[in-house]
Design goal:
Elements (H helix, E strand, L loop, with lengths): L1 H19 L3 H5 L3 E6 L6 H13 L8 E6 L6 H9 L7 E4 L7 H5 L13 E5 L5 E6 L7 H7 L1 E4 L6 H13 L4 E4 L5 H10 L4 E5 H7 L1 H5 L3 E6 L22 H10 L1 H4 L3 E4 L5 H15 L2 H9 L7 E2 H12 L3 H10 L3
Parallel strand pairs: 1-2, 1-3, 6-7
Antiparallel strand pairs: 3-10, 4-10, 4-11, 5-8, 5-9
Helix pairs in contact: 3-14, 11-16
Length: about 350
């Protein structure tokens, strides 16, 4: 009797096993992957994400439908928390978030509004490293950091959690640019650009990709003065005569602090997914992302849109974020002090 029961149990397991061992292609066939975008339509994040979504499906086994969906708010913190706590963890959702949010718990500590730590999230891939710059409207008369020190600059930012606020705040505090003011509340690129034209603000932290996506004519007509690069190293997209902000800092420890804060520019267009995605689907999404970055049709479209592609793999993103969160506590304390307003 016992032997018969064992045989029946084994037979049942054999019948169940094929159904549970669903392949990636079988899972994704006929499904929809929601590609969330943490900003409204019309800016660099939106343009990048929608372009990627148009091409990535053919590189995912099963060729699922890719559905872009905007979820703006708080420099994409609303989206990031949605991915962390509410989105499905089965590989049918990922999103484009502000690069600084991946490091928000590191930068803000207990003040962080992030419901996740960077290493908890699934890193899918990053489309480009940012040529982040401090720009001033041409009528402001601001061309150098010394001009900012003497005359001041009014910068428009989205919220306290995004790089449009954190990067200039760090530069202001470390370089002692006391006359620089940062005004919050501009939801995205479109609103900040209108404010520049109207004279409500005189400057902004932007990246070259975002400028080219939203206001390419401004570069051609020289309506923006590029004051400084906010990055660990010089980027080829920025004119060679534009200095690094950190080169104006004498203290080596303060330069190291800026390098840590500027890590968000290394992952300028990050795509992250919820935690706990099955390993085979996580790898399929990572592989598909990198395959898209090399896809001739995708590259032809990004060339027309004047978008630079310089990808980072999901595994490399994971390493960068993990190492950042493992930095020595004294250095992290200095970083957090530099980001206090």
């Amino acid at each position: 009797m016992i032997a018969r029961l064992l045989l029946l149990a084994i037979a049942s397991l054999l019948c169940i096993a094929p159904a549970s061992a669903e392949s990636v292609a079988e899972f994704y066939k006929g499904k929809t992957i929601t590609v969330y975008i943490g900003y409204g339509a019309g800016g660099g994040y939106d343009l990048f994400a929608r372009t990627i979504a148009r091409h990535m499906s053919r590189h995912i086994p099963g060729n699922p439908t890719m559905l872009p969906m905007n979820m703006p708010g708080a420099s994409s913190m609303i989206l990031a928390n949605h991915l962390a706590k509410r989105a499905p963890q089965d590989g049918t959702a990922f999103g484009a978030v502000n690069s600084a949010l991946v490091f928000d718990r590191l930068f803000a500590g207990t003040e962080s509004k992030a419901q996740f730590s960077g290493p908890d999230m699934t890193m899918i891939g990053n489309a480009v490293s940012s040529a982040a710059v401090l720009v001033a409207w041409h009528e402001s008369g601001i061309k150098t950091l010394q001009d900012v020190r003497q005359k001041g600059l009014v910068i428009g930012a989205t919220s306290r959690t995004g790089d449009t606020y954190l990067l200039p705040l760090a530069v202001k505090n470390i370089l002692g640019l006391d006359k620089m003011k940062i005004i919050l509340g501009y939801p995205g690129t479109r609103e900040a650009a209108i404010a520049l034209e109207r004279g409500e603000i005189t400057g902004r932290v932007w990246d070259m990709e975002g400028i080219k996506a939203a206001r390419p004519q401004w570069l051609k007509d020289k309506l923006l003065n590029i004051v400084a690069q906010l990055a660990p190293r010089k980027m080829p997209e920025v004119p060679a005569d534009v200095p690094l902000a950190k080169d104006a800092v004498a203290d080596a420890d303060d330069r190291r602090v800026l390098d840590v804060i500027f890590l968000s520019t290394v992952l300028a267009r990050p795509y992250i997914a919820p935690p706990n995605i099955p390993a085979d689907r996580r790898q399929a999404l990572r592989d598909a992302f990198m395959a898209t970055m090399k896809d001739p049709a995708f590259l032809a479209e990004t060339k027309k849109l004047r978008l630079t592609i310089d990808p980072t793999s999901g595994r490399e993103m994971e390493r960068i974020v993990g190492e950042a969160y493992a930095l020595p506590k004294p250095l992290v304390a200095r970083v957090r002090k530099a980001l206090q307003d």
